[in-house]
Write a structure and sequence with these properties.
234 residues; mainly beta; Porin; ten-stranded antiparallel beta sheet; 2 helices; elongated; disordered N terminus; Beta-barrel_OMP_2; PorT family protein; signal
Length: 234
């Protein structure tokens, strides 16, 4: 019975995949949601993944701070305003979870060398979407703009610093973003996978009280870098 069920599941998946491919990439596809992009305003949501990093600039040359990132999770809403046939203005507020482990040089034990930076971001991007000409049920696009981010795990108000194992960052930061993706027009909704890079504009670190701190003393600037992979449903 298990083998029969597995066979039926595989057969159904292959058939669905074939129909999906024919509908999107066939030589004469059925045009789905033909008038969707003519809406002045529409809404949606997205789910996705992120990979955050830091870019460090140092006051003097020396060993680098090593950053080990993890794969985080994104969820958010989309508001889309059609400006003209090929340009849209998008607001995509979302909640982003991530963690970065920082390994500072010059320490003999991991307790002092390691700082775990757990961040919960509320992200507010304002973006312009530049779409290509639609071909069947496919429409590639480029996206770019600016964003501001609230870091709920910044520890910015803490009086403790790295001497008390407390790594502190500024609560607000500004970024610019660039990316690309593709709109896939399905029978009942539009599905849009995309990838986007985010680049921090501000120095985010809050330095320790000691100007010669082994954790923050040699850091000139620390700025966020990240990659978002989002799956949008509209």
């Amino acid at each position: 019975m298990k083998k029969i069920l597995a066979f039926l599941l595989i057969a159904f998946s292959l058939q669905s995949h074939a129909q999906f491919g024919k509908g999107l990439f066939g030589s004469d596809p059925i045009i789905n949601l033909e008038n969707w992009d003519k809406q002045r305003v529409h809404w949606g949501y997205y789910l996705g993944f992120n990979a955050y990093d830091f870019k460090f600039d140092y006051k003097t040359a020396g060993p680098d701070i090593q950053v080990k990132g993890t794969t985080g999770f994104n969820v958010g809403l989309i508001g889309n305003l059609r400006l003209q046939e090929y340009i849209d203005l998008r607001f995509e507020p979302g909640l982003y979870y991530t963690q970065r482990d920082l390994y500072f040089p010059g320490f003999d034990n991991e307790t002092d060398a390691l700082r775990q930076v757990k961040s919960t971001y509320i992200h507010f991007p304002l973006l312009l979407k530049f779409s290509a000409l639609r071909t069947g049920n496919i429409r590639p696009f480029l996206v770019g703009g600016v964003s501001t981010t609230l870091n709920l795990g910044s520890n910015s108000k803490s009086k403790d610093d790295n001497l008390n194992e407390r790594f502190r960052m500024k609560q607000w930061t500004n970024n610019y973003e660039m990316g690309f993706g593709v709109d896939l027009y399905l029978e009942y909704f539009k599905f849009s996978p995309s990838i986007r890079g985010v680049f921090g504009l501000n120095d985010e670190i809050i330095r320790d009280e000691d100007p010669n701190s082994p954790w923050t003393g040699n850091i000139g600037t620390m700025k966020t870098r990240g990659v978002f992979v989002n799956f949008t449903f509209q």
